[in-house]
Amino acid sequence: MTQINVTQEIFLSPTYFCDHGHPEIKSIAWILEHESETLAEYVKNVFFYVRDTIRFGIDLWQVKASSTLSKGYGACYNKNLLMIALLRNKSVSCKLRANPMKNSFVRPSAGNAYKTLSNPFFHCFTDVLLGKNWISLDPTLDKRTYESFFKPLEPGWSIEWDENGMEPLYSESITGPSVTFKNIDSALKTNLNSYFLFKYEPKILLRLYAGTGNKSMWKKAGHLSCTDE
User: Fold this and answer.
1) What does the DSSP 8-state code read for residue 168?
2) Is the pTM of this model over 0.85?
3) For residue 210, which phi and psi values (nearest 5 degrees)?
4) Tens digit of each residue's pLDDT (9 = 90 or more) over 128-157
5) Is residue 1 part of a domain?
6) Is 3 a domain residue?
7) C-beta separation of 81 from 68 below 8 A
């Protein structure tokens, strides 16, 4: 697979949470690399792996990429971080970004629980350097979640992409210009200026909140069987 020369060291470096040297990250990156003939194909394979293998679900902000891989689920910040780690592992420059959103953007999947999110709430996506161009990708919604909750509403966006990138998810809910988080760890430690329930909710409360909501959402999306309940 052909590699590219990169000078954006800040967008290649490992961090505490973006632990792209972790053995499990390296193992998945190796598998996806050997399924790819070009760099563009590797980026594509990473995107689809994170989008559909890692199901959408709420988790804490302060979660390592390797932990999200092990858990098999994550929110926008978790799944984008995992994609960044897999790409940086193969020297692909990428950066974590976010759009400020009306909190109602998650209403289709979360129901009235959307009211517990800060307003605005920052939704993450990733800019990837492919060739000489930065393209935007967002693996947040797995196919089952999208088709169960969002596609029936006929939104003006989809979860698909090509070599030119993809339109932002929840575009109708964006309230302002996007931001770039050059320091991923600092951004995650401040919850990306967003919060659930209360601004400084205890992690044990957030885990309970997330666990209850995820189970309900996964059941409706067909991620859980009767034996999983």
Assistant:
1) P
2) yes
3) -70, -45
4) 999 889 999 999 999 999 999 999 999 999
5) no
6) no
7) yes
- Identify the H or E element spanning 179: strand 179-181
- Residue 43 contacts residue 87 (beta carbons within 8 Å): yes
The answer to whether residue 227 sits within a structural domain is no
The number of CA neighbours under 13 Å toward the Cβ of 1 is 21
Distances (CA, A) of 219 to 70, 108, 113, 139, 145: 20, 14, 16, 20, 10
147 forms bridges with which residues in the sheet?
none
Q: What CATH number is associated with residue 183? A: 3.10.620
**pLDDT tens-digit map of 6-56:** 446 789 999 999 999 999 999 999 999 999 999 999 999 999 999 999 999
CB 122 within 8 A of CB 100: yes
Query: Which structural domain, as residue segments, surrounds residue 58?
Result: 9-220
The domain tally of the chain equals: 1
CB crowding 200-223: b at 16 or more within 10 Å, else e: eeeeeebeebbeebbeebbeebeb
Contact 169, 162 (CB under 8 A): no
Domain membership of residue 50 (yes or no) is yes
Q: Label the pairing between strands 133-137 and 179-181.
A: unpaired
Taken as a whole, the chain contains a residue count of: 229
H/E stretch holding 97:
strand 94-101
Q: Closest Cα partner for 28 from 72, 94, 60, 58?
A: 72
